[in-house]
Amino acid sequence: MSYDLQQRANTLIEALPYLREYWGATMVIKYGGAAMVEPELKALVLQDVVLLRYVGMYPVLVHGGGPEISEMMRRLGKEPAFVRGLRVTDEETMAIAEMVLVGRINQDLVAAVNAAGGKGVGLSGKHGRMLRVVKQQGDVDLGLVGDIREVDPTLLRTVSAQGYVPLIAPIGVGDDGQTYNINADHAAGKIAGALQATKLIVLSDVPGILADVKDETTLVSSLSAEQARLMIAGGQVEAGMIPKLEACLDALAHGVPRCHIIDGRAPHALLMEIFTDVGSGTMVLP
Ligand code: ADP
Ligand code: MG
């Protein structure tokens, strides 16, 4: 056998301990950032997700879509409004957000999973009453922004068990019948907890948590929940990284043993995280 063929066989054999450990495991993946925008990267991520399903794991994908919502609003002649970096969601914004997240991004991901040979099922938190939300209470009123009160994972389990890959748009309904927008990172954390996932993996467009945001060489490869809380409280983690770490903390608090924030810009970042012990990104442990 040629050296090349031997190498290929080795690659598969090296994956064996991970295949054994994670057979039947639920992996909740928050999909966002550059990996969602660039077509080539997008195809690779969804190919990885399909592979996970075919080797016996249950991948569940939660996606965001902030930049596309803003773009669509502008195309429709409406200027996005933010208060301290947080989007203000009025009725019209909610309608546009739902149209973009559910009608467009979600369906596009279903098509990409199908193109990779999997069977994608597009869902929002409305389906099967999966995400029950309440209007977010804070010092600023952001409008139709919801916090998840309860996750019913029944539909996800059913869909996954039948061989499908569920793809979730972070939108939910309140007891008031109102549709609410939900932060996708927070939704992923709650869903990971409700499913008792083996891992929550958040794709980002940075190497992971950085000790100094401006220096990509300062990657923190492992953090305890306590250290993560201190980084948030101390202002070392800012803006879009805050909900990602909060999602990890929430998942850990609900029994998910490990959370990872990884660099979605690296091709096959997901496979490297799951099938090697090189350990990309930041791992957050209880
Ligand atoms: P997404 O679109 O995937 O939700 P965000 O832009 O919302 O991504 O969040 C990721 C951003 O968080 C990074 O691009 C980075 O600028 C910022 N960030 C803030 N603090 C940190 C930190 N300590 N380490 C890494 N990134 C950080
Ligand atoms: Mg974000």
Structural notes for this entry:
With 286 residues, this protein is α/β, with parallel strands linked by helices. Helices cover 43% and strands 22% of the residues. The chain contains 10 helices and 14 strands. The protein has helices at 3-22, 34-37, 39-54, 66-75, 91-115, 154-161, 184-195, 225-233, 241-253, 269-275, and strands at residues 26-31, 58-63, 82-83, 86-87, 120-124, 131-135, 146-151, 165-169, 171-174, 179-181, 199-204, 222-224, 258-263, 282-285. The strands form 3 sheets. The protein has an 8-stranded mixed sheet with strand order 5-8-2-1-11-13-14-12, sandwiched between helices. β9 (171-174) and β10 form a beta hairpin. α4 (66-75) crosses α5. The longest helix has 25 residues, at 91-115. The model has no long low-confidence stretch (mean pLDDT 95). It binds adenosine-5'-diphosphate and magnesium ion (MG).
